[in-house]
Write a structure and sequence with these properties.
eight-stranded mixed beta sheet, 10 helices, about 20% strand, about 35% helix, alpha/beta, Rossmann fold
Length: about 250
């Protein structure tokens, strides 16, 4: 690290759990963020500010005025710009030392596989089940930790699926394909609305989990699902176990 980096990350390095070695790990790490909307915005900002050396941000959508109520990485001046490119521009202003790769098109499974292979941690900040199932399958196959977040209305959830641990469930264990019929547009913010600070809380928590995984510190949310009711500001924790019959990570995956 140079002198500017030592000063920039000094408050991290004062923490004994992080120190110089932990910050070096972050600078040499690569995180993939799928979705640069409500969850991806705070996640990307905090990963960049914290010094994760390489960020790949995947989002095919364009910034819209209705996004600005909660997607804090974007601005009114960038309405109409691709969200991944908008996020890259915002990150450059916060931390120009970070390398950001912006993928502007909708990623197919092959593209996602290539991105996940290169990454050390994957953050699922998407808003549809198809993407979530694809990311889960690939992270199971490639044994990459997946930090999953979701938010709708006043309710949010966060967990970590880490198939490097044999006791970890995967996303499909919790939400099997059969539980979703047809398109899931009814589960999107455009249809149901979302409390603006909620996505900030969930996305920031995803960033915290990703940073801990990259540095190998603390205890991750693997095996635990955090549920937040923002109206009452109550958190609940549910223990998770792998499903032996899971068709993705079970005894006989198909």
């Amino acid at each position: 690290m140079n002198d500017k980096q030592l000063l920039r990350y000094s408050r991290h390095m004062l923490l004994p759990q992080i120190g110089y070695e932990g910050q070096e790990k972050l600078l040499n790490s690569h995180a993939l963020i799928v979705g640069a909307g409500g969850l991806g915005s705070p996640a990307a900002l905090y990963l960049a500010a914290s010094g994760v050396g390489t960020l790949s941000i995947c989002d095919f959508d364009a910034v819209d005025l209705s996004n600005l109520q909660r997607q804090i990485i974007h601005t009114g001046a960038r309405i109409g710009m691709n969200k991944a490119q908008s996020a890259k521009q915002a990150i450059a202003e916060i931390n120009p030392d970070i390398s950001v790769h912006a993928l502007e098109q909708r990623a197919d499974e092959q593209t996602l596989a290539e991105l996940i292979t290169q990454a050390d941690v994957v953050l699922d900040c998407s808003d549809n089940f198809a993407t979530r199932y694809s990311l889960n399958r690939l992270c199971v196959d490639l044994k990459k930790p997946l930090v999953s977040g979701a938010a709708i209305g006043f309710e949010g959830q966060i967990t970590v699926y880490d198939m490097r641990n044999s006791h970890s469930p995967c996303y499909h264990c919790l939400f099997p394909d059969s539980s979703v019929s047809g398109e899931d547009n009814s589960m999107r913010c455009a249809s149901n609305g979302v409390f603006a600070p909620l996505v900030g809380i969930v996305g920031t928590t995803q960033a915290a989990e990703a940073l801990k995984l990259l540095m190998g510190i603390g205890e991750s949310l693997q095996g635990r699902l955090l549920l937040l009711d923002a109206l009452s500001m109550e958190w609940r924790t549910i223990g998770l176990s792998p499903d032996p019959a899971c068709t993705v990570c079970g005894i006989k995956p198909t």
